[in-house]
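Chapter summary example.
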Amino acid sequence: MKRTISLRSSRAMGEALMVWRASSVALRAAAILVGALAIIPLAYILIRALEADATVWERLWSRQIPALAGNTLALTITTVALSTLFGVGAAWLVERTDLPGARVWRVLLALPLAIPAYVAAICWLILLRRGGVIDQMAMEWMGFARGAFPLPQITNLWGATMVISLCVFPYVFLPVGAVLRSLDRSLEEAARMAGLSAWTTLWRVVLPLAMPAAAGGALLVALYALSDFGTVAMLRYRTFTLAIFQQFAGQVDRSAAAILSFVLIGMAIPVLYGAAWMARRERQLTRTRWQPPRLTRLGRWQPLALLAIGGLTFFSLGLPLLTLGGLTLQGWLVPTEVDRIWGVNNAGVLRYALNSVGLAATAATGAIALAIFPALVAVRQPGRWSSLLLAACQSPFALPGIIIGLSFVLLFNRWMPMLYGTLAVLVVGFVFRLLPQAVTANESALRVVSPSLEQAARTLGDNGIRAFQRVTFPVAAPGLLAGWVLCFVTAMKELPTVILLRPPGFDTLPVRIWVAASESVHTQAAPSAFTLIAVTIVTLLIVTHYQARIEKVLSHS
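The structure predicted for these 557 residues follows.
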Protein backbone atom coordinates (compact mmCIF):
# COMPACT_ATOMS: atom_id res chain seq x y z
CA MET A 1 0.00 0.00 0.00
CA LYS A 2 2.76 2.42 1.01
CA ARG A 3 4.73 1.45 -2.08
CA THR A 4 1.69 2.22 -4.32
CA ILE A 5 1.27 5.64 -2.71
CA SER A 6 4.97 6.29 -3.13
CA LEU A 7 4.83 5.34 -6.83
CA ARG A 8 1.81 7.62 -7.38
CA SER A 9 3.58 10.48 -5.61
CA SER A 10 6.71 9.97 -7.72
CA ARG A 11 4.64 9.81 -10.89
CA ALA A 12 2.84 13.04 -9.93
CA MET A 13 6.13 14.79 -9.23
CA GLY A 14 7.52 13.54 -12.53
CA GLU A 15 4.50 14.83 -14.44
CA ALA A 16 4.74 18.15 -12.64
CA LEU A 17 8.44 18.36 -13.55
CA MET A 18 7.67 17.66 -17.22
CA VAL A 19 4.94 20.31 -17.20
CA TRP A 20 7.34 22.78 -15.59
CA ARG A 21 10.03 22.10 -18.20
CA ALA A 22 7.56 22.49 -21.06
CA SER A 23 6.23 25.76 -19.68
CA SER A 24 9.81 26.96 -19.07
CA VAL A 25 10.73 26.33 -22.72
CA ALA A 26 7.58 28.11 -23.90
CA LEU A 27 8.33 31.04 -21.60
CA ARG A 28 11.87 31.35 -22.95
CA ALA A 29 10.67 31.19 -26.54
CA ALA A 30 8.09 33.92 -25.95
CA ALA A 31 10.64 36.10 -24.14
CA ILE A 32 13.19 35.70 -26.94
CA LEU A 33 10.55 36.63 -29.49
CA VAL A 34 9.67 39.81 -27.58
CA GLY A 35 13.36 40.72 -27.29
CA ALA A 36 13.94 40.12 -31.00
CA LEU A 37 10.97 42.29 -31.93
CA ALA A 38 12.08 45.03 -29.52
CA ILE A 39 15.41 45.59 -31.28
CA ILE A 40 13.95 45.73 -34.81
CA PRO A 41 13.41 49.54 -34.83
CA LEU A 42 16.88 50.13 -33.37
CA ALA A 43 18.54 47.75 -35.84
CA TYR A 44 16.67 49.23 -38.81
CA ILE A 45 17.68 52.80 -37.94
CA LEU A 46 21.31 51.76 -37.58
CA ILE A 47 21.27 49.88 -40.89
CA ARG A 48 19.59 52.78 -42.66
CA ALA A 49 22.18 55.20 -41.26
CA LEU A 50 25.13 53.01 -42.27
CA GLU A 51 23.70 52.67 -45.79
CA ALA A 52 23.61 56.45 -46.25
CA ASP A 53 25.93 58.10 -48.73
CA ALA A 54 29.28 59.28 -47.40
CA THR A 55 28.61 62.83 -48.59
CA VAL A 56 25.54 63.03 -46.35
CA TRP A 57 27.62 61.91 -43.35
CA GLU A 58 30.29 64.48 -44.17
CA ARG A 59 27.78 67.30 -44.57
CA LEU A 60 26.06 66.54 -41.28
CA TRP A 61 29.31 66.12 -39.32
CA SER A 62 30.70 69.39 -40.63
CA ARG A 63 27.57 71.55 -40.38
CA GLN A 64 25.04 70.21 -37.90
CA ILE A 65 26.13 67.42 -35.57
CA PRO A 66 28.69 69.35 -33.42
CA ALA A 67 26.23 72.17 -32.67
CA LEU A 68 23.34 69.77 -32.11
CA ALA A 69 25.45 67.63 -29.78
CA GLY A 70 26.49 70.72 -27.79
CA ASN A 71 22.90 71.98 -27.46
CA THR A 72 21.56 68.55 -26.53
CA LEU A 73 24.27 67.89 -23.93
CA ALA A 74 23.86 71.36 -22.44
CA LEU A 75 20.10 70.87 -22.10
CA THR A 76 20.57 67.42 -20.56
CA ILE A 77 23.17 68.55 -18.01
CA THR A 78 21.32 71.67 -16.87
CA THR A 79 17.98 69.87 -16.68
CA VAL A 80 19.47 67.05 -14.59
CA ALA A 81 21.11 69.55 -12.23
CA LEU A 82 17.97 71.66 -11.70
CA SER A 83 15.62 68.66 -11.43
CA THR A 84 17.90 67.02 -8.86
CA LEU A 85 17.99 70.23 -6.83
CA PHE A 86 14.18 70.48 -6.89
CA GLY A 87 13.59 66.78 -6.25
CA VAL A 88 16.07 66.19 -3.42
CA GLY A 89 15.25 69.47 -1.69
CA ALA A 90 11.50 68.89 -1.84
CA ALA A 91 11.85 65.25 -0.70
CA TRP A 92 13.88 66.24 2.35
CA LEU A 93 11.47 69.02 3.35
CA VAL A 94 8.40 66.77 2.95
CA GLU A 95 9.76 63.54 4.45
CA ARG A 96 12.32 64.60 7.07
CA THR A 97 11.11 67.88 8.53
CA ASP A 98 8.07 69.04 10.50
CA LEU A 99 6.70 70.83 7.42
CA PRO A 100 2.89 71.08 7.82
CA GLY A 101 0.74 69.06 5.40
CA ALA A 102 3.37 66.52 4.37
CA ARG A 103 0.79 64.07 2.97
CA VAL A 104 -0.79 66.76 0.80
CA TRP A 105 2.57 67.99 -0.51
CA ARG A 106 3.57 64.39 -1.27
CA VAL A 107 0.61 64.06 -3.65
CA LEU A 108 0.80 67.54 -5.16
CA LEU A 109 4.51 67.28 -5.94
CA ALA A 110 3.95 64.02 -7.84
CA LEU A 111 1.19 65.40 -10.09
CA PRO A 112 3.45 67.50 -12.40
CA LEU A 113 4.28 64.19 -14.10
CA ALA A 114 0.78 64.41 -15.60
CA ILE A 115 1.63 67.69 -17.35
CA PRO A 116 3.44 67.28 -20.69
CA ALA A 117 6.46 69.56 -20.89
CA TYR A 118 5.29 70.90 -24.27
CA VAL A 119 2.01 72.01 -22.65
CA ALA A 120 3.95 73.77 -19.88
CA ALA A 121 6.05 75.45 -22.59
CA ILE A 122 2.87 76.75 -24.24
CA CYS A 123 1.70 78.21 -20.91
CA TRP A 124 5.01 79.97 -20.26
CA LEU A 125 5.06 81.37 -23.80
CA ILE A 126 1.57 82.76 -23.33
CA LEU A 127 2.66 84.45 -20.11
CA LEU A 128 6.12 85.74 -21.05
CA ARG A 129 6.06 86.49 -24.78
CA ARG A 130 5.75 90.01 -26.15
CA GLY A 131 2.05 90.83 -26.27
CA GLY A 132 1.36 88.00 -23.82
CA VAL A 133 -0.49 88.08 -20.52
CA ILE A 134 2.20 89.73 -18.39
CA ASP A 135 3.13 92.26 -21.10
CA GLN A 136 -0.53 93.24 -21.49
CA MET A 137 -0.96 93.61 -17.73
CA ALA A 138 2.15 95.81 -17.56
CA MET A 139 0.80 98.10 -20.28
CA GLU A 140 -2.76 98.31 -18.91
CA TRP A 141 -2.13 98.41 -15.16
CA MET A 142 1.36 99.96 -14.81
CA GLY A 143 1.45 102.27 -17.82
CA PHE A 144 4.42 100.72 -19.61
CA ALA A 145 4.82 101.44 -23.30
CA ARG A 146 4.49 98.54 -25.72
CA GLY A 147 7.63 96.42 -25.54
CA ALA A 148 9.12 98.43 -22.65
CA PHE A 149 8.41 96.04 -19.77
CA PRO A 150 11.42 93.73 -19.12
CA LEU A 151 10.52 90.09 -19.69
CA PRO A 152 12.80 87.07 -19.29
CA GLN A 153 13.68 85.27 -22.51
CA ILE A 154 12.62 81.62 -22.42
CA THR A 155 13.26 80.64 -26.05
CA ASN A 156 16.77 79.54 -25.17
CA LEU A 157 18.67 76.94 -23.14
CA TRP A 158 17.65 78.28 -19.75
CA GLY A 159 14.00 78.56 -20.68
CA ALA A 160 13.92 74.98 -21.94
CA THR A 161 15.78 73.82 -18.81
CA MET A 162 13.31 75.52 -16.49
CA VAL A 163 10.20 74.27 -18.29
CA ILE A 164 11.34 70.65 -18.54
CA SER A 165 12.70 70.57 -14.97
CA LEU A 166 9.40 71.76 -13.51
CA CYS A 167 7.67 68.82 -15.21
CA VAL A 168 10.16 66.02 -14.56
CA PHE A 169 11.59 66.70 -11.09
CA PRO A 170 9.12 64.11 -9.63
CA TYR A 171 11.35 61.45 -11.23
CA VAL A 172 13.86 62.44 -8.52
CA PHE A 173 11.40 63.48 -5.81
CA LEU A 174 9.48 60.18 -5.69
CA PRO A 175 12.37 57.69 -5.29
CA VAL A 176 14.33 59.96 -2.94
CA GLY A 177 11.22 60.50 -0.83
CA ALA A 178 10.66 56.73 -0.63
CA VAL A 179 14.26 56.20 0.54
CA LEU A 180 14.08 58.97 3.13
CA ARG A 181 10.91 57.40 4.54
CA SER A 182 12.50 53.95 4.81
CA LEU A 183 16.01 54.72 6.11
CA ASP A 184 16.90 53.13 9.45
CA ARG A 185 16.76 55.84 12.10
CA SER A 186 19.49 54.10 14.11
CA LEU A 187 22.06 55.26 11.54
CA GLU A 188 21.28 58.89 12.32
CA GLU A 189 21.17 58.21 16.03
CA ALA A 190 24.61 56.61 15.87
CA ALA A 191 25.97 59.65 14.03
CA ARG A 192 24.48 62.00 16.64
CA MET A 193 25.94 59.91 19.46
CA ALA A 194 29.33 60.23 17.74
CA GLY A 195 29.05 63.99 18.15
CA LEU A 196 27.84 65.05 14.72
CA SER A 197 25.35 67.91 14.48
CA ALA A 198 21.98 67.53 12.78
CA TRP A 199 23.17 69.27 9.60
CA THR A 200 26.44 67.31 9.50
CA THR A 201 24.42 64.08 9.89
CA LEU A 202 22.22 65.16 7.01
CA TRP A 203 25.18 65.78 4.67
CA ARG A 204 27.36 62.85 5.75
CA VAL A 205 24.76 60.12 6.50
CA VAL A 206 21.26 60.76 5.16
CA LEU A 207 21.94 62.30 1.76
CA PRO A 208 24.72 59.83 0.77
CA LEU A 209 22.31 56.95 1.44
CA ALA A 210 19.69 58.64 -0.73
CA MET A 211 22.11 59.41 -3.57
CA PRO A 212 21.63 56.11 -5.47
CA ALA A 213 17.89 56.84 -5.68
CA ALA A 214 18.60 60.44 -6.68
CA ALA A 215 21.09 59.31 -9.33
CA GLY A 216 18.62 56.79 -10.73
CA GLY A 217 15.95 59.47 -10.98
CA ALA A 218 18.44 61.92 -12.49
CA LEU A 219 19.31 59.41 -15.21
CA LEU A 220 15.61 59.10 -16.07
CA VAL A 221 15.51 62.89 -16.31
CA ALA A 222 18.52 62.73 -18.64
CA LEU A 223 16.75 60.24 -20.90
CA TYR A 224 13.70 62.52 -20.96
CA ALA A 225 15.79 65.57 -21.84
CA LEU A 226 17.58 63.68 -24.61
CA SER A 227 14.28 62.52 -26.11
CA ASP A 228 12.16 65.66 -25.66
CA PHE A 229 10.72 67.01 -28.88
CA GLY A 230 7.64 69.10 -28.16
CA THR A 231 9.23 71.49 -25.66
CA VAL A 232 12.31 72.31 -27.73
CA ALA A 233 10.12 72.73 -30.80
CA MET A 234 7.84 75.18 -28.98
CA LEU A 235 10.77 77.12 -27.53
CA ARG A 236 12.77 76.93 -30.78
CA TYR A 237 15.83 75.46 -29.07
CA ARG A 238 17.50 73.27 -31.67
CA THR A 239 18.46 69.80 -30.45
CA PHE A 240 18.76 66.42 -32.16
CA THR A 241 15.05 65.59 -31.87
CA LEU A 242 13.96 68.83 -33.54
CA ALA A 243 16.58 68.44 -36.27
CA ILE A 244 15.50 64.83 -36.91
CA PHE A 245 11.88 65.91 -37.34
CA GLN A 246 12.86 68.74 -39.67
CA GLN A 247 15.06 66.46 -41.76
CA PHE A 248 12.28 63.88 -41.98
CA ALA A 249 9.53 66.37 -42.80
CA GLY A 250 11.48 68.51 -45.24
CA GLN A 251 13.30 66.04 -47.49
CA VAL A 252 12.49 63.11 -49.71
CA ASP A 253 15.72 61.34 -48.72
CA ARG A 254 15.33 60.37 -45.05
CA SER A 255 18.91 59.09 -44.66
CA ALA A 256 19.95 62.33 -42.92
CA ALA A 257 17.25 61.78 -40.31
CA ALA A 258 18.53 58.22 -39.80
CA ILE A 259 22.11 59.48 -39.34
CA LEU A 260 21.07 62.06 -36.74
CA SER A 261 19.03 59.35 -35.00
CA PHE A 262 22.12 57.11 -35.02
CA VAL A 263 24.17 59.79 -33.23
CA LEU A 264 21.42 60.48 -30.69
CA ILE A 265 21.11 56.76 -29.93
CA GLY A 266 24.86 56.69 -29.28
CA MET A 267 24.41 59.49 -26.74
CA ALA A 268 21.45 57.82 -25.04
CA ILE A 269 22.87 54.29 -24.64
CA PRO A 270 25.41 55.20 -21.89
CA VAL A 271 22.64 56.98 -19.99
CA LEU A 272 20.41 53.92 -20.35
CA TYR A 273 23.15 51.64 -19.06
CA GLY A 274 23.75 53.98 -16.11
CA ALA A 275 20.04 54.03 -15.26
CA ALA A 276 19.93 50.21 -15.22
CA TRP A 277 23.04 50.03 -13.03
CA MET A 278 21.67 52.62 -10.60
CA ALA A 279 18.34 50.81 -10.37
CA ARG A 280 20.14 47.64 -9.26
CA ARG A 281 22.30 49.56 -6.76
CA GLU A 282 19.25 51.36 -5.40
CA ARG A 283 17.54 48.05 -4.62
CA GLN A 284 20.61 46.97 -2.67
CA LEU A 285 20.91 50.13 -0.59
CA THR A 286 17.29 50.65 0.38
CA ARG A 287 16.63 47.31 2.03
CA THR A 288 16.52 48.61 5.60
CA ARG A 289 14.07 48.09 8.40
CA TRP A 290 11.65 50.93 8.85
CA GLN A 291 11.38 53.11 11.96
CA PRO A 292 9.44 56.34 12.32
CA PRO A 293 11.88 59.06 11.27
CA ARG A 294 13.05 61.71 13.69
CA LEU A 295 11.86 64.88 11.99
CA THR A 296 14.06 67.95 11.81
CA ARG A 297 12.43 70.98 13.38
CA LEU A 298 12.50 73.91 11.02
CA GLY A 299 11.71 76.51 13.66
CA ARG A 300 11.91 80.03 12.28
CA TRP A 301 12.75 78.60 8.84
CA GLN A 302 9.34 76.95 8.52
CA PRO A 303 7.65 79.90 6.70
CA LEU A 304 10.53 80.02 4.19
CA ALA A 305 10.26 76.23 3.65
CA LEU A 306 6.52 76.54 3.08
CA LEU A 307 7.16 79.35 0.61
CA ALA A 308 9.68 77.22 -1.28
CA ILE A 309 7.43 74.14 -1.46
CA GLY A 310 4.40 76.26 -2.30
CA GLY A 311 6.30 78.09 -5.03
CA LEU A 312 7.54 74.84 -6.58
CA THR A 313 3.99 73.43 -6.53
CA PHE A 314 2.53 76.60 -8.00
CA PHE A 315 5.00 76.94 -10.88
CA SER A 316 4.98 73.23 -11.75
CA LEU A 317 1.25 72.49 -11.31
CA GLY A 318 -0.85 75.51 -10.41
CA LEU A 319 0.37 77.96 -13.04
CA PRO A 320 -0.19 75.62 -16.03
CA LEU A 321 -3.67 74.70 -14.78
CA LEU A 322 -4.65 78.34 -14.15
CA THR A 323 -3.30 79.44 -17.54
CA LEU A 324 -5.10 76.67 -19.42
CA GLY A 325 -8.31 77.22 -17.47
CA GLY A 326 -8.24 80.96 -18.18
CA LEU A 327 -7.60 80.43 -21.88
CA THR A 328 -10.40 77.88 -22.10
CA LEU A 329 -12.87 80.31 -20.52
CA GLN A 330 -11.65 83.11 -22.80
CA GLY A 331 -12.24 80.97 -25.89
CA TRP A 332 -15.75 80.09 -24.70
CA LEU A 333 -16.90 83.45 -23.31
CA VAL A 334 -15.07 85.99 -25.49
CA PRO A 335 -14.44 84.17 -28.77
CA THR A 336 -12.53 85.84 -31.56
CA GLU A 337 -13.05 85.26 -35.26
CA VAL A 338 -10.17 82.77 -35.20
CA ASP A 339 -11.91 80.90 -32.36
CA ARG A 340 -15.09 80.71 -34.43
CA ILE A 341 -13.18 79.35 -37.40
CA TRP A 342 -11.51 76.68 -35.27
CA GLY A 343 -14.77 75.81 -33.54
CA VAL A 344 -15.36 77.76 -30.36
CA ASN A 345 -17.17 74.95 -28.57
CA ASN A 346 -14.37 72.46 -29.28
CA ALA A 347 -16.89 69.86 -30.31
CA GLY A 348 -14.09 67.47 -31.17
CA VAL A 349 -12.38 67.53 -27.76
CA LEU A 350 -14.46 64.59 -26.51
CA ARG A 351 -13.55 62.58 -29.60
CA TYR A 352 -9.87 63.47 -29.21
CA ALA A 353 -10.04 62.48 -25.54
CA LEU A 354 -11.62 59.13 -26.35
CA ASN A 355 -9.00 58.51 -29.03
CA SER A 356 -6.20 59.34 -26.57
CA VAL A 357 -7.61 57.21 -23.75
CA GLY A 358 -8.36 54.26 -26.03
CA LEU A 359 -4.93 54.37 -27.66
CA ALA A 360 -3.09 54.80 -24.34
CA ALA A 361 -5.05 52.04 -22.59
CA THR A 362 -4.61 49.61 -25.49
CA ALA A 363 -0.90 50.30 -25.84
CA ALA A 364 -0.27 50.15 -22.07
CA THR A 365 -2.11 46.83 -21.81
CA GLY A 366 -0.22 45.40 -24.78
CA ALA A 367 3.14 46.56 -23.43
CA ILE A 368 2.49 45.12 -19.95
CA ALA A 369 1.30 41.82 -21.46
CA LEU A 370 4.36 41.47 -23.72
CA ALA A 371 6.73 42.52 -20.93
CA ILE A 372 5.53 39.68 -18.68
CA PHE A 373 7.59 37.11 -20.62
CA PRO A 374 11.08 38.70 -20.46
CA ALA A 375 10.42 39.93 -16.91
CA LEU A 376 9.54 36.41 -15.74
CA VAL A 377 12.65 34.99 -17.39
CA ALA A 378 14.85 37.65 -15.76
CA VAL A 379 13.35 36.97 -12.32
CA ARG A 380 13.03 33.16 -12.41
CA GLN A 381 15.98 32.23 -14.62
CA PRO A 382 18.73 34.78 -13.83
CA GLY A 383 21.94 34.57 -15.78
CA ARG A 384 23.98 36.21 -18.49
CA TRP A 385 21.59 35.34 -21.31
CA SER A 386 18.55 36.63 -19.41
CA SER A 387 20.44 39.86 -18.71
CA LEU A 388 21.11 40.22 -22.44
CA LEU A 389 17.45 39.53 -23.14
CA LEU A 390 16.43 42.19 -20.64
CA ALA A 391 18.83 44.68 -22.24
CA ALA A 392 17.34 43.92 -25.67
CA CYS A 393 13.81 44.56 -24.39
CA GLN A 394 14.92 47.80 -22.75
CA SER A 395 16.84 49.00 -25.81
CA PRO A 396 13.91 51.16 -27.03
CA PHE A 397 14.68 53.34 -23.96
CA ALA A 398 17.58 54.63 -26.05
CA LEU A 399 15.12 55.63 -28.78
CA PRO A 400 13.22 58.90 -28.31
CA GLY A 401 9.62 58.84 -29.46
CA ILE A 402 10.46 60.65 -32.66
CA ILE A 403 13.00 57.92 -33.58
CA ILE A 404 10.48 55.16 -32.76
CA GLY A 405 8.01 56.86 -35.08
CA LEU A 406 10.64 57.43 -37.77
CA SER A 407 11.83 53.81 -37.67
CA PHE A 408 8.30 52.48 -38.11
CA VAL A 409 7.61 54.96 -40.92
CA LEU A 410 10.73 53.83 -42.80
CA LEU A 411 10.19 50.16 -41.97
CA PHE A 412 6.55 49.87 -42.99
CA ASN A 413 6.99 52.20 -45.95
CA ARG A 414 9.67 49.92 -47.32
CA TRP A 415 8.48 46.42 -46.43
CA MET A 416 4.75 46.62 -45.68
CA PRO A 417 3.33 49.70 -47.39
CA MET A 418 -0.20 48.32 -47.24
CA LEU A 419 -0.14 48.69 -43.42
CA TYR A 420 1.44 52.14 -43.33
CA GLY A 421 -0.98 54.81 -42.15
CA THR A 422 -3.27 52.40 -40.29
CA LEU A 423 -4.27 52.40 -36.65
CA ALA A 424 -2.56 49.03 -36.17
CA VAL A 425 0.86 50.54 -36.95
CA LEU A 426 0.20 53.37 -34.48
CA VAL A 427 -0.67 50.89 -31.71
CA VAL A 428 2.42 48.78 -32.47
CA GLY A 429 4.61 51.89 -32.37
CA PHE A 430 3.18 52.89 -29.00
CA VAL A 431 3.65 49.39 -27.58
CA PHE A 432 7.34 49.43 -28.47
CA ARG A 433 7.65 52.97 -27.11
CA LEU A 434 6.29 51.72 -23.76
CA LEU A 435 7.97 48.31 -23.65
CA PRO A 436 11.09 49.34 -21.66
CA GLN A 437 8.99 50.95 -18.92
CA ALA A 438 6.72 47.92 -18.82
CA VAL A 439 9.64 45.47 -18.56
CA THR A 440 11.25 47.46 -15.75
CA ALA A 441 7.99 47.75 -13.80
CA ASN A 442 7.06 44.08 -14.32
CA GLU A 443 10.48 42.91 -13.19
CA SER A 444 10.15 44.85 -9.93
CA ALA A 445 6.60 43.58 -9.39
CA LEU A 446 7.46 39.92 -10.02
CA ARG A 447 10.44 39.96 -7.66
CA VAL A 448 8.09 40.17 -4.67
CA VAL A 449 6.54 36.78 -5.56
CA SER A 450 8.38 33.91 -3.91
CA PRO A 451 9.34 31.13 -6.38
CA SER A 452 8.28 28.57 -3.76
CA LEU A 453 4.66 29.63 -4.18
CA GLU A 454 4.76 28.85 -7.91
CA GLN A 455 6.58 25.57 -7.29
CA ALA A 456 3.91 24.54 -4.79
CA ALA A 457 1.18 25.28 -7.32
CA ARG A 458 2.93 23.20 -9.98
CA THR A 459 3.40 20.34 -7.51
CA LEU A 460 -0.37 20.37 -6.96
CA GLY A 461 -0.91 19.92 -10.70
CA ASP A 462 -1.19 23.45 -12.06
CA ASN A 463 0.65 24.15 -15.30
CA GLY A 464 2.70 27.29 -15.78
CA ILE A 465 -0.19 29.41 -17.07
CA ARG A 466 -2.59 28.32 -14.35
CA ALA A 467 0.05 28.81 -11.63
CA PHE A 468 0.63 32.33 -12.93
CA GLN A 469 -3.10 33.10 -12.92
CA ARG A 470 -3.79 31.71 -9.45
CA VAL A 471 -0.58 32.62 -7.59
CA THR A 472 1.83 34.98 -9.35
CA PHE A 473 -0.58 37.50 -10.83
CA PRO A 474 -2.62 38.21 -7.65
CA VAL A 475 0.49 38.82 -5.56
CA ALA A 476 2.21 40.96 -8.20
CA ALA A 477 -0.98 42.85 -9.09
CA PRO A 478 -0.15 46.14 -7.28
CA GLY A 479 3.23 46.42 -9.01
CA LEU A 480 1.80 45.42 -12.39
CA LEU A 481 -0.95 48.00 -11.98
CA ALA A 482 1.64 50.67 -11.12
CA GLY A 483 3.52 49.75 -14.30
CA TRP A 484 0.33 50.01 -16.33
CA VAL A 485 -0.33 53.47 -14.93
CA LEU A 486 3.20 54.59 -15.80
CA CYS A 487 2.76 53.34 -19.37
CA PHE A 488 -0.72 54.89 -19.65
CA VAL A 489 0.49 58.32 -18.52
CA THR A 490 3.45 58.17 -20.92
CA ALA A 491 1.18 57.19 -23.81
CA MET A 492 -1.33 59.94 -23.03
CA LYS A 493 1.41 62.57 -23.28
CA GLU A 494 3.26 61.10 -26.28
CA LEU A 495 3.46 63.51 -29.19
CA PRO A 496 6.11 62.69 -31.86
CA THR A 497 5.17 59.01 -32.27
CA VAL A 498 1.52 59.82 -32.89
CA ILE A 499 2.38 62.70 -35.24
CA LEU A 500 4.47 60.42 -37.45
CA LEU A 501 2.31 57.26 -37.33
CA ARG A 502 -1.31 58.38 -36.95
CA PRO A 503 -3.71 57.42 -39.76
CA PRO A 504 -5.52 60.20 -41.62
CA GLY A 505 -8.38 61.66 -39.58
CA PHE A 506 -7.24 60.11 -36.29
CA ASP A 507 -6.41 62.98 -33.92
CA THR A 508 -5.53 62.73 -30.26
CA LEU A 509 -5.34 65.42 -27.59
CA PRO A 510 -1.56 65.93 -28.06
CA VAL A 511 -2.05 66.32 -31.83
CA ARG A 512 -4.83 68.87 -31.31
CA ILE A 513 -2.63 70.79 -28.86
CA TRP A 514 0.32 70.69 -31.24
CA VAL A 515 -1.63 71.86 -34.30
CA ALA A 516 -3.40 74.71 -32.50
CA ALA A 517 -0.26 75.90 -30.67
CA SER A 518 1.77 75.77 -33.90
CA GLU A 519 -0.74 78.23 -35.37
CA SER A 520 -0.62 80.32 -32.14
CA VAL A 521 -4.34 79.71 -31.54
CA HIS A 522 -3.77 79.08 -27.84
CA THR A 523 -7.40 79.48 -26.86
CA GLN A 524 -8.13 76.37 -28.91
CA ALA A 525 -5.08 74.45 -27.66
CA ALA A 526 -6.03 75.09 -24.03
CA PRO A 527 -9.23 72.96 -23.80
CA SER A 528 -7.44 69.91 -25.19
CA ALA A 529 -4.45 70.46 -22.91
CA PHE A 530 -6.68 70.94 -19.87
CA THR A 531 -8.63 67.80 -20.75
CA LEU A 532 -5.41 65.81 -21.23
CA ILE A 533 -4.08 66.83 -17.81
CA ALA A 534 -7.43 66.26 -16.09
CA VAL A 535 -7.87 62.76 -17.54
CA THR A 536 -4.31 61.82 -16.61
CA ILE A 537 -4.57 63.14 -13.05
CA VAL A 538 -7.95 61.48 -12.44
CA THR A 539 -6.60 58.17 -13.77
CA LEU A 540 -3.57 58.47 -11.50
CA LEU A 541 -5.71 59.14 -8.42
CA ILE A 542 -8.24 56.38 -9.16
CA VAL A 543 -5.66 53.70 -9.89
CA THR A 544 -3.50 54.77 -6.93
CA HIS A 545 -6.52 54.38 -4.65
CA TYR A 546 -7.36 50.99 -6.18
CA GLN A 547 -3.74 49.89 -5.84
CA ALA A 548 -3.74 50.84 -2.16
CA ARG A 549 -6.87 48.72 -1.63
CA ILE A 550 -5.21 45.72 -3.32
CA GLU A 551 -2.13 46.10 -1.11
CA LYS A 552 -4.34 46.32 1.99
CA VAL A 553 -6.19 43.12 1.05
CA LEU A 554 -2.92 41.29 0.37
CA SER A 555 -1.41 42.44 3.66
CA HIS A 556 -4.36 40.94 5.58
CA SER A 557 -4.54 37.71 3.60
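To summarize the output: Residues 16-20, 282-290 have pLDDT under 50 and may be disordered.
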